[in-house]
Amino acid sequence: MDEARKAELANYSDKIGEGNLVPLWDRLRSLVTPEPKSPCQPHLWRYDAIRPVLLEAGTLLTAKEAERRVLILENPGMPGESKITTSLYAGIQLIMPGEIAPAHKHSQAAFRFIIEGNGAYTAVDGEKSYMSKGDLILTPSGRWHDHGNESDEPTFWLDGLDIPIVQFLDASFFEHHSDDEHPHVIEDGDSVAMYGSGMMPVDFEVQSPTSPVVKYPYERTRATLNKMKKAGNLDPCHGLKLMYVNPVDGKSAMPTMGAFMQLLPSGFETSSYRSTDATVYSVVEGRGKTKVGERVFEWGPNDTFVVPSWHHHQHFAGDECVLFSYSDRPVQQALGLWREDRGNR
Ligand code: GTQ
């Protein structure tokens, strides 16, 4: 294009810009990309580096003062945005013995994936779920929740929330409870017994797209993985992989976040895989490494790492490994956008 025409088009852009109009021909290639193009970067956070500084925060402010004593895992490709992927949030939360993180509710859905400690709890609408390592506890959108620690050890967990999705949709509401704790009215484990044992109360009415099971205990998850291991049938891309489901409809336990647990036998190498759901991993057991594009991340128990959308990756298990992960897969599937590529590279 000659200089005169370029100047003419630039003039035109300036002129219509005053009316809040923009020519699509300047933007089309960056708006509609041939493949996912994300600011999200692959990254790993070592638990050994987080634990001491989070404990230090434990001496600086109480859980009540902080409301939630959390260090956000912020993706280095999106500084200042409090996101681990473009659509999801991650943080590591600490609650010290005797503390209470006061009751509140918000539109954002959350889960807690327990990393360290035994005997702290989350109460959801008054149902207490006591925490052990590897448990998944759901806090669905709009439900009261408070956290407490009745044990004598600090308790750490991974918080996964759909904050960026709710932000994108401008649908955020938040409220404090009038008391620090919503009255605790239901015994621990009630929801697992009522809805998560292959049976349901006969007149159960679905009131929410989130699973009525509040806690998915690691004991059960691990036992299922052990059974799968005995049965064999390893998937070349995933090893043995489970999805946390809502027993009401067999879909994802949460509508905005998919959660998974996988086992990689000792020495197992996964085939190259990519999918459009950027995925956050939390290492439960074992040591290994993950190759993401040209980068290699070595990980061990309680480390967190993120694989961005549509990045080729492969896992290499050292000893037998168990990996928890979550992503926005149910959102993409509901919208017909989710894609995977099982290799050939
Ligand atoms: O525990 O309710 O990491 O509201 C971020 C926001 C945790 C929580 C977070 C929250 C919470």
Description of the structure:
With 345 residues, the chain is of the alpha+beta class. The protein has a single domain (32-341), classed as Jelly Rolls (Sandwich). 20% of the residues lie in helices and 30% in strands. The chain contains 8 helices and 22 strands. It has helices at residues 3-17, 28-31, 47-60, 63-66, 163-168, 190-195, 218-231, 329-334; strands at 43-45, 70-72, 89-95, 100-106, 110-116, 120-124, 127-130, 136-139, 145-149, 155-161, 174-176, 215-216, 240-243, 258-264, 274-275, 279-285, 288-292, 295-299, 304-307, 313-317, 321-327, 340-341. The strands form 5 sheets. A 6-stranded antiparallel beta sheet has the order 1-19-16-21-14-13. Strands 2-3-10-5-8-12 form a 6-stranded antiparallel beta sheet. A hairpin with a 2-residue loop joins β6 (120-124) and β7. The longest helix has 15 residues, at 3-17. The radius of gyration is 22 Å and the shape is globular. The model has no long low-confidence stretch (mean pLDDT 96). 2,5-dihydroxybenzoic acid (GTQ) binds next to β3 and β10.
